Amino acid sequence: MVRASAAAEGAGVPSVSLVCEGFLGQAASTAAGLGMPDLPTAAVPGHVDVQSPEELRRNVLTVTVDAVIRGLTESRPRASGSVAEPEARDIVLEGTFDEVNRFFYENEWSDGLPIVPPTRERVAEFLRFTDRAPDEALGVLLPDRRQATIWNVAVNGVMAGCRPEYMPVLVALVEAMADPHYGVEHSGNTPGAETLIVLDGPIVKELGFNYQQGALRDGFHANTTVGRFWRLYLRNVAGFLPHKTDKGTFGNTWRVVLAENDEVLHRIGWPSIAYDQGVTAPNAVTISRFTGGGVIVSVFGSTPEQMLPYLADALARQVGWELCFTVGLATGTQKPLLILSPILAETLARAGLTKQALQRELYRRARIPAWKFERLIGEWTNLVPGRPTLLDLVRAGKAPAVFAESEDPDRPVPVVCEPGDIMIAVSGDPLRTNAYCFAHNGMLGFPTTKPVALPRDWSRLLREARSR
Amino acid sequence: MNVVSGREIYQVVWPRGRKMVEVTDIAPRLDKLDGKTIGELWDYLFRGDEIFPVLEEELGRRLPGVRFVRYDVFGSTHGAEEHKVLAELPDKLRRQEVDAVISGMAC
User: Fold this and answer.
1) Which candidate, A179, A441, A412, places its Cα nearest to that of A326?
2) Chain A contact present for B44, CB below 8 A
3) What is the DSSP code (8-state) at residue B8?
4) Which residue from A17, A38, A332 is facing B106, i.e. has the nearest CB?
5) How many other CB atoms are found less than 10 A from the CB of residue A221?
6) Other CB atoms closer than 10 Å to residue B41's CB: what's the count?
7) Burial profile B71-100: b = 16 or more Cβ within 10 angstroms, e = fewer
8) Where are the beta strands (DSSP E) in chain B?
9) Closest residue in A to B3 (Cα–Cα)
């Protein structure tokens, strides 16, 4: 909304932004990041979703209208200019471990856990693991509109406690973060969804990522520190700070990296997540933002007919309000993730199911009544305003025909637009019959995959790193 | 890392990145809104479909000759089409002869 106002101002048209009371701070920070700290706002008291029509009208008439007029007609003194900031290699503090940690925390550069002090020497160790120049720009990240560089990737990698040899993975992650396809600018939205990083390829074993039992648990150095790096980088370079630009109502802590079980995928002939995403490089990272997940315990049965109803039911139950990304708010962008333990994937594959066939079966079976779908997007949430029915949306060309196969409100409709929208990964305890399902945050963190580029002398560097 | 008086001292660098934004002036404000054309931009969330009509009614009452261009002319400013809608916005504002914009809803 503020981005739209900035676009209008850039075209020479004065604007005013309508902002609920609790979001005025975020609007100001976002405007500053867009280079227009003077963008005027007009407050709407409280939050509109819990106001009666009469109350909403009264608030708009008594508070908002005057602010709209002022915002479009009154010039304000220009906000003070930018504050001088350090250069990349400047020493910002000399101090003990405790002093460094206190300084970084007080400046909001830390997540509250102790960081590894980012000294130039330590950063240099990380830079050995990339062929790219330290000052090479990887992109510019909103909302702060700061430059992502190889150098500041290394700095935040040091802080997160990563080992230097993780650097190629960190660089690929920031390339994905900077890809407009992903939509990093939405990372401070109120659902507070958290990114899950999926890692594929031989690098999983080379760097010692856990891809077996406890795949989503902290306690494995590579998975844990790379996951922490992601959140530190969002904080320090993109500029997402709770109580400011990060408005997650609850939020989550960062997720550890999910590494796929490459061996099992090869054995059963299923492609990896990265390959499904169109990236054929040997090693790749995939990022997506997920709103939440749940474990599917003790899938029972030796055939797809026995196993699929439970998996499909879990998928249908996990996706709730997020259906507005299936149809309505951003049609076709809902990409839930189902993680199968190896024994489940192997049992399904042994019965002849390819991954694509499994996606088709889940698409056919993971359904909810049309009335419930409509209430989740348009009545209980108002995320698709005007309470259109699915039939309305299909007739308007805003939803695929499968959502209007009859007029029966009890007709089952899918939770995604196409079978391929259901992402499937293989990881976790090889010999336990559990699965896990994540609901997805649609275009506000769309699946984005990047190859992991290794330095020319990777094998030697890795050998040296292992011997340290 | 140095050791000073038996204490390990770290010289640490800045973890952030250079700001790549030039602070720019916003567009000049209007002397008055009477007789002007106001464009409505909406992200199709948080009751803009109820709020814009109230604004139209009240602004129309206070400001003689004011005209509104409804949000559906511009498309949703949030959603799968956001980048496209914002890229097309300057041209649409010009073609609709819009003098000022009200953009909602941030909630």
Assistant:
1) A441
2) yes
3) E
4) A17
5) 16
6) 32
7) beebbbbbbbbbeebbeebeebbeeeebbb
8) 2-4, 7-13, 37-42, 67-69, 100-106
9) A96
pLDDT in tens, chain A (468 residues): 899 999 999 999 999 999 999 999 889 988 988 999 999 999 999 999 999 999 999 999 999 999 999 999 998 777 666 678 999 999 999 999 999 999 999 999 999 999 999 999 999 999 999 999 999 999 999 999 999 999 999 999 999 999 999 999 999 999 999 999 999 999 999 999 999 999 999 999 999 999 999 999 999 999 999 999 999 999 999 999 999 999 999 998 999 999 999 999 999 999 999 999 999 999 999 999 999 999 999 999 999 999 999 999 999 999 999 999 999 999 999 999 999 999 999 999 999 999 999 999 999 999 999 999 999 999 999 999 999 999 999 999 999 999 999 999 999 999 999 999 999 999 999 999 999 999 999 999 999 999 999 999 999 999 999 888
CB-based contact A143:A30 (threshold 8 Å): yes
Nearest to A211 by CA among A111, A351, A341, A352: A341
Total residue count of chain A as it appears in this document: 468
| Kind and range of the H or E run holding A312 | helix A304-318
- Alpha-carbon A449 to chain mean position: 12
Q: B32 vs chain A: nearest CA distance in angstroms?
A: 6
Q: Which residues of A touch B80 (CB under 8 A)?
A: 330-333, 443
ipTM: 0.92
Distance of residue A82 Cα from the nearest chain B Cα, in angstroms: 8
Which residue in A69, A81, A118 is closest to B15 by CB distance? Answer: A118
Distance CA A308, CA A124 (A): 50
**Rounded Cα–Cα distance for residues A157 and A232 (Å):** 9
Q: How far is CA A97 from CA A119, A155, A308, B11, in A?
A: 11, 16, 53, 10
Break chain B down into helix, strand, coil percent, rounded to 5.
30, 25, 45
Choose among B16, B59, B90: nearest Cβ to A152. Answer: B16
Determine the Cα–Cα distance for residues A113 and A44; give it in Å rounded to an integer: 37
Q: In chain A, which residue's Cα lies nearest the Cα of B101? A: A15
Handedness of CA A195, A201, A207, A211 (dihedral sign): positive
Q: Which residues contact residue B5 at a Cβ distance below 8 angstroms, ignoring those fewer than 6 apart? A: none
User: Hey, what's the torsion of the CAs at A22, A25, A29, A30, to 10 degrees?
Assistant: 20
What residue ranges do the domains of chain B occupy? 38-107
> Is there a cis peptide before residue A164, judged by omega within 30 degrees of 0?
no
> Which residues of chain B have a CB within 8 Å of the CB of A177?
none
Token pair of B60 as six digits: 């129309």
Nearest to A56 among B17, B47, B106 (CB): B47
Instruction: Provide the whole-model pTM.
Output: 0.93
* Helix (H), strand (E) at residue A42: strand A41-44
